[in-house]
Amino acid sequence: MAEPMGFFTDPTVCIGCKACEVACKQWNQLPALDDERSTLSGDSYDNTRKLDGTHWRHVKFIEQFDDDRRDGRWTMLSDVCKHCVQAGCLEVCPTNAIIRTEFDTVVIQSDTCNGCKACLAACPFGVIDINPVSNTAQKCTLCYDRLQAGMEPACSQACPTDSIVFGPVWQLKQRAARRVEQLHAAGEKRAVLYGADDKMLGGLNAFFLLVDRPEVYGLPPDPKMPSRNLAPGAWFSVLGAIVVGLVSVFNFRDRRADDIDGA
After folding, report:
1. Predicted structure pTM score
2. Is pLDDT at 193 greater than 90 in this prediction?
3. 150 vs 219: CA distance, rounded Å
4. Which end is more exposed in the chain, N or C (fewer Cβ atoms within 10 Å of the end residue's Cβ)?
């Protein structure tokens, strides 16, 4: 098996050019527009809005300004599927359409997907959506076809500032740690890595450097696997069954008592 491959995304050097979005769409032959419409979102310069079945890379524009807009900063982040080591989408897929490749990436096989949407609810990052053309769930494949040919993914190859870095995950983690140290030395003490260790879903093969809280970037601070909800849900079900049973017993006793009194 090949070694795990992934992305390290550093938003501190992202210029918001969206070259990664364009390269992803070109290589994967995804439609440029939604329903052949070109509309403005009204959300800064971000008109692609979110990751979905036809947008597998999405550059977020995050404006942080004072009320008088005299002081502030831009924060931009090229978001993508995280290719989780413990992937919720893979766990719930009923047709085995979602597989883990030899590069430790997570890929949806459209020819096996039945469009049930279970994976959409299971992904804590909201990455997956239905492609309206194929009516199947789709997301970033980390350019699996290019990896098989020894090529770099289209998005990272197109990035002009190396905000998106591709390579073996262990090498990316070393590079990311050095970058955090560099930012700390420069005075940016908030710089942290998101998803670079195994505490988050066993580790994210596409992880990020953040200089603010995850929520600011639209990322969950503590994503969970769907199976983590099974135990609490089971206890609530048992408790509910006990309550219903007790109520039924008392109701039955009350009815018996009324029947006896009536006789």
Report:
1. 0.84
2. yes
3. 31
4. C
